[in-house]
Amino acid sequence: MLLQKEVAHDVIAYAISLGADFCELFIEKTSVQNITYNSKKIKDISSGIDSGIGVRLIYGEMALYAYSNSSKKEDLLDMVKKLAAQFSSKHTGVMKTFNFTPLSYKEIKYLPKKDVLLPQKIETFKKLDSLVREKSPLISQVSLFLIQKEQNIEIYNSEGLYAAENRPYIRLFADVVAADGNEQASAYTGPGRRGGFSFIESLDLNQIAEQTTKQALVTLKARPCPAGEMPVIIENGFGGVIFHEACGHLLETTSVEKKSSVFWDKKGEMIAHPSVSAVDDGTNDNLWGSLSIDDEGMPTQKTQLIKDGRLENFICDKLGNIKTGHMRTGSGRRQSYRFAPASRMRNTYIDQGKSTLDDMLQSVGNGLYCASMGGGSVNPGTGEFNFSVNEGYMVKNGKIDHAIKGATLIGKGAEILTKISMVGNNLEWTAGMCGSVSGSIPTTVGQPAIKLDSILVGGQA
Question: Could you give the CA distance from residue 22 to residue 202 in angstroms, rounded to a whole number?
Fold first, then answer.
């Protein structure tokens, strides 16, 4: 137990006596180890433990938040007093008694938290580095990074809730650079899961080496991409980053409550092509963005965002529920105790369809095939986006032709949903990090291959 229940009780009771409608304590202890490896040697090893307590008071639709590294009752009481002083409440509450009942929930499965000594981790780096370099003499740089984190949380609130969860995370990053004369190109992959080093041991390192090397070499020899409106196929996995960034954030109640989302009043309406169904699911075993409970102590769930093109639900936390009336979805998330929770995505993806890649290629005729997507920028208010293509090919007469480089996809989230006319049968997920008002959190993006009838492609040819 990270905080004594008696201390939690007295702090929460004091907050309610000062007129707060709701009080919540978020207690966290997190240990992290990071290892950086490049130029065939370990460059940095860092580790540490961070712990603290966040206090949130809600008055009507207004929330106040503060945090401390102290778990002493007098320090927490003083923090509550200073918070409450910021809100001129016209009423005071009464001292209440809370019987904190441990929350019962279904715990997601995660890969075993296997203890592995540092030398074994270093040997894994050496092996992957060697496998990459063996693929081609044009490989000039291999950079590897491992992050392993274990987060323990407890939550108490004035509704009598007590909840706790242990959250192990692990992720491997591999960045490969190929060079030929003055030309160079890079490729990147970053698999991650809930669990321990057993996940790294389950990876096919040769496949990772093959995948990253191939992408870097293909891009190195690629031709400049032509620009203009054209049909585009976006491959599975990280292709889902466009839906996450350009559409997913517009379905979070942090955006909906301000009416800054183009979808704020579209529930029940058709917002996408009938082939599109989209989900935000916190319950997938092992996935990087999965949680048994959210950071407000609510069990997570599978939330159907879009069904056959129709907007079904929003991504909603407690404050979003208060402000909009939409049902909570177990989506209150935060980076750490230093942040108040907000409505955030978990594992967000376009769901499985029925089309094959060959079906899509034949229907495109001539266009662009995006085998791997990169990063980009999004206007959070409008959903306007600009995403780079890491590995792309022109499509000619329904077949994949020559490789291209320098391509970007440009559009608006609300419009792209209506232009998806085919959805593939090869759903895949990819780990990522998402930044927003409550910090940077682990999320998963995903999709099968999808076909866009038309989208603006930026290019240099």
Answer: 45
| Phi, psi values for residue 195, rounded to 5° | 145, -165
The string of DSSP letters for 238-286 reads GGGHHHHHHTGGGGBHHHHTTT-STTTT-TTSB-S-TT--EEEES--TT
Give dist(CA 308, CA 423) in Å, integer: 11
Q: pLDDT per residue over 175-201, tens digit each? A: 999 999 999 999 999 999 999 999 999
The pLDDT tens digits for 215-248 are 999 999 999 999 999 999 999 999 999 999 999 9
3-state secondary structure of 125: helix
Query: What's the pLDDT at 114?
Result: 80
3-state secondary structure of 413: helix
The secondary structure of 39-96 as a DSSP string is TTEEEEEEEEEEEEEEEEEEETTEEEEEEES---HHHHHHHHHHHHTTS--S------
Tokens encoding 110: 């995660």
Q: What residues have CB less than 8 Å from 20, skipping those under 6 apart?
A: 57, 58, 59, 84, 89, 93, 158
The Cα 376–Cα 361 span in angstroms is 25
Residue 94: predicted pLDDT: 65
Tokens 């895949």 locate to: 428
**What CA–CA distance (Å, rounded) separates 342 from 312?**
20
**3-class SS at 361?**
helix
Q: Domain residue spans in the chain?
A: 228-458
Q: Over the range 294-318, which residues count as b (16 or more CB within 10 Å of their CB) and which as e?
A: bbbbbbbeebbbbbebbbebbbbbb
How far is CA 286 from each of CA 110, 168, 289, 408, rounded to the nearest angstrom? 4, 10, 9, 32
